[in-house]
Amino acid sequence: MRIWCCFCFGEEEEDNSKGYKKSMRDPILGNNGDESPDENPAFDWRAVFDGVDVGGAGASRPRADNVGVRRNEEIDFDINWLLSDVEVRNGNYSGERMLNVNLNLGLSEEASSSSTVQREDPDRDSCSKRPKVNSFSLDWDNHLLQETNYLCPMNEGGGDVSLSNFLDATNDEGKDIGISKMEDLDVRMDLTDDLLHMVFSFLDHIDLCRAASVCRQWRAASSHEDFWRYLNFKNKQISSDQFEDMCRRYPNATAVNLYGTLNIHTLAMKAVSSLRNLEALTLGRGQLGETFFQALTDCHMLKSLTVNDATLGNGIQEIPIYHDRLRLLQLVKCRVLRVSVRCPQLETLSLKRSSMPHAVLNCPLLHDLDIASCHKLSDAAIRSAATACPLLESLDMSNCSCVSDETLREIAQTCANLRVLDASYCPNISLESVRLVMLTVLKLHSCEGITSASMAAIAHSYMLEVLELDNCSLLTSVSLDLPRLQNIRLVHCRKFIDLNLHSGMLSSITVSNCPLLQRINITSSALKKLVLQKQESLSIITLQCPNLLEVDLTECESLTNSICEVFSDGGGCPVLKSLILDNCESLTAVAFCSTSLVSLSLAGCRALMSLQLRCPYLEQVSLDGCDHLEIASFCPVGLRSLNLGICPKMSVLNIEAPQMASLELKGCGVLSEASINCPLLTSFDASFCSQLKDDCLSATTSSCPLIESLVLMSCPSVGCDGLLSLHSLPNLTYLDLSYTFLVNLQPVYESCLRLKVLKLQACKYLTDTSLEPLYKENALPALCELDLSYGTLCQSAIEELLACCTHLTHVSLNGCVNMHDLNWGFTGDQLSRIPGVGIAPHGSSLVEQHLPNEHPKRLLENLNCVGCPNIKKVVIPMAQGFLLSSLNLSLSANLKEVDIACYNLCFLNLSNCCSLESLQLECPRLSSLFLQSCNIDEEAVEAAISRCTMLETLDVRFCPKICPPSMGRLRAACPSLKRIFSSLVPS
Questions:
Q1: What sections of 397-529 are H helices per DSSP?
Q2: Coiled-coil stretches, from where to where (predicted)?
Q3: Is 338 part of any domain?
Q4: What is the pLDDT of residues 200-234, one digit of tens each?
């Protein structure tokens, strides 16, 4: 059997030889097919089931059930619904792409009106036949092709499986050809009807239409009326006949959305007359005649009517809306002269943003009334409408500028159950003599008549839960004792001064941009977070909040030291955990005694001079910007780390922190008294504490025996007695004594037996014999890193240190003026004479194949000789620098010759060595070479890098003898190069 798919997009049928005429009557709908499909715009996917052709009033063709046809005879199958689906998802509903949607997705076994299925011998192997596309009427776009491929998977033989395979195609014996095709494709979807129904209940209409093309069972399941109770034609182009067909197809639909459709009046009339079970109707963006509202009485099941942005009637007549069962009515942004609503069951009515000047209501059960932004409604009209609804619970009259207190008083007397009132932007109300006893929500945004006298009326609303007073410009004070108040807002109240609230249920307070606010008194057992940022005039706070956890008073510049009593024990906040007082610049002496405080921030309190914290559970404290702090006491606190280096004027410090592990006093240059009791302290940095003496250091080491890292850089007052006290620190491994006046290092040798890192930068008073115990007496056997930068040791002392202290791995000799040549015994020319090492014929190194058998003499890995002005020659043979991985000789202006053979060297920096002339390298693992601003020529560089087979980065910027055109030669000399940094133009 050959299956032909004919894509018909509104064009007339060319082949009429099979006896199918457009004038034939649809056997399901009973409509004729005389009308051209192009005469009506197609809507999306709503009427694709059961052979409904929405391309015209009756552009469908019947199918003869028992007519035998030849094997090669063609059948037609419209998949215009697929293009319509594409149009829906692309949001393109323009008339330029009107499509004829014609797809048989019926439930019954009745003949389809949109496709003709050919019969053939059942013994034939139908799987070997490929479906074939007969013709195209329009150009395909990529998106449609993707959708077609998605719906038409490929079979095993490589042929296309047409959509018609999944429709109601049967052979002469009644066997479902489509299902057998799917079985052959191993796409089995044998699910129970109940399970399908449950799964399809999660799909939208587009996905239901896609599912309908899978098989007959899915088609039947997806067209179940349960999924089509809501007919949504919002912003769709649908004709009157199409909509009538849909109403006939799904007569049990309960909800219809016609917003944005053409001719909403006609469609709405058909909806209320055809759908007897209609409960919800949405209309808009058009004109509704009076006859529609008269016909509403015949739609007995209607419960919800929404009309948005429409003209009712001719705009100058009264519109009556009478309905016995209507419960929700919304006339939003509608243009009408007068509305009369008589609906005995109506509960919710919205006339928001509508232009009617008169509204007559007869709705005894109305609960919610929204007349917001009805600017033409007079005060009397609002009063009449609201008082006609005695059961009213919610009233929104915001932006009704003509509302008066008299209207509110009558509403309060008539509507005893009123709970929600929004009178925002009503400048004429002051609540004088208004008693709204049952009110729970009151919104009074931008009400210019609301003053402190209005609080007397609000105080009678003892059920009030939400109060919003934003932008009440004349309000000066709020004093309320409301037991149920939960939420209050006071934003941009320019004259507001005093806030006094007593409510056990108060949980949210929003006070912002009230520049004159001075006093706050709050009593609440439910409040957990209080944020009062940028209240510049706030000076007095009284709190009785037993469950308050967080307080933020950032930039409350007028707060005084008395605020500490509020947040200390006994101040009314017994469980407070977080307190932020950033940029409170009036605080000078802060003292907190709290057993609950965990986090405290005083950043930016520049006037703070004294700080006393007795908070045993305090874990975080911020003192950034407290540069005038002189006295600080942390006794006790739960801090694990503390940085006071930003307090340069601190002179007295007391710390008792059982959990503290890190303490930094870097920059406390006037600190003279320090009592530090931190038994778990491991890191102590007292850099630039020039007044720190031996007694303070001794007391600290005795009370903090676990210190591992001690930094005493620029502490000139520390002497031998202080260094001898380091014997109390058995775990000390890092010691920095740089920039001190030390003369003798013997106390260090005796006290720091486990020291690994010793920094002695700029210790210019050390003698040449100060380091002899290191390389003659094996002092500090665990020492790995030694920094002697900017020292005055002689050349011989340095050479002996490097030659004898073979356990050192990191040595820094930066800026040593007495550092001359660095010659470790072998030159590059002598490298070939080292036993086991040779040069390959083509210049490649054989070091990797011939490593020294004996243990290397030095363990040195990193050597820094930056800025050594007198160093001229560097010679490091393989045997002496086998483990060396990093060498930095930059800024050595007199360095002329470099001859290095190091197997593990990876990093070499010779930048700014302007006298460099000779460079010989035998470094098979070198990856980075820096020669910036060197006078070496390109031939020497080329020869040097030719033996560095792993070099990746080369920096030759600002080298006057190396021009950018020569980069190719360098890459040829070292093929492993990945990055060459060079000047854009020759220097």
A1: 405-414, 454-458
A2: none
A3: no
A4: 888 887 888 888 888 888 888 888 888 889 998 89
